[in-house]
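Hi team,

As requested, here is the filled-out complex form for the KG4 run. I kept the field names the same as last time so the parser does not choke. Let me know if anything looks off before we queue the next batch.

— J.
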Amino acid sequence: MRVLGLETSCDDTGVAVFDTDCGLLAHKLYSQSQMHAEYGGVVPELASRDHIRKLLPLVREVLADAKVAPSDLDGVAYTMGPGLAGALLVGASIGRSLAYAWGIPAVGVHHMEGHLLAPMLESDAPAFPFLALLVSGGHTLLTDVRAVGDYHLLGESVDDAVGEAFDKTAKLLDLDYPGGPAIAAAAMHGTPGRFRFPRPMTDRPGLDFSFSGLKTAALTATQQNALDARTIGDIAYAFQEAAVDTLVIKCARALEQTGHTRLVIAGGVGANVLLRARLTEHCAKTNVHLYYPRPLFCTDNGAMIAYAGALRLRAGQEEGLAFGARARWSLMDLAVP
Ligand code: KG4
Ligand code: ZN
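And here is what came back:
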């Protein structure tokens, strides 16, 4: 089965063609982040308009790259939620209409399921069941994954998502948007030990997270110190250490509680080099196999949507002719296709 995947939930326009026999045939990404950087964060209306401009040309380019004609496709998958309503509607309306025009089925994909299954695009793909740490700009989730659509929530953030904390802290430090890569880069010049921030909710049992206190600790540090380049590096360093430490402590706890021997890490923050290194260290010590997508497929992309869509279409799931978008949509509401 050959599926065209479209991702437009936030500020990346992603398109890909995935074939269940041959793998990924082509993928392209257009990032709007430079446009939004001017405003220090995503401006939803600008995001929607840019998806409208970019999506169809990108579809043409990807089909040409894959050497695939519309008549060679068996379905279209688009991100149906969660995300920015206007941005989602661009992908949903174009995806549903293309499928209608081409006479093939369409399926709306949950964005976080796309992230969750993205490691399966790699040659070293995880088998079910596994523990998944999903860390993005909108979500911080620890999930027990038994099969496609069979997800059990073990823990989540009670306030800010970890990516959101990276982005907000970067803003406090006058760093670029998106904040995750900017903090990681600034932290490379940081002095260990000058600041120490809390590891929220690690001193009590449970698998939930909280990141707003960490952001407040960074805010206090910015207020009590002159923000020169050295201090920015030192605060970024302490922030990244605390955020990564918190994630690793909770993953270790969840692995111990569930007995899983496979850990999947996905979502934008999964591209963080320190997080990968610390988890690799922990997993090596405890005989756990760690899986993650290449950095490009950690952040938003069309390949993960084409892949998740192909699995669901192959299982017989498809949308009616009406299309919709779900700005808020829990991963736990999904069912086995
Ligand atoms: O998955 P994603 O691209 O979009 C959402 O679904 O939200 O995740 C974006 C988030 C942003 O908060 C961004 O700052 C963060 O992922 N991020 C990182 C890194 N690269 C992206 N955070 C830490 N380190 C990185 N290298
Ligand atoms: Zn995402």
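Two things worth flagging: Residues 2-117+300-333 form a domain with the Nucleotidyltransferase; domain 5 fold (CATH 3.30.420.40). The first strand starts at residue 2 and ends at 7.

Thanks,
J.
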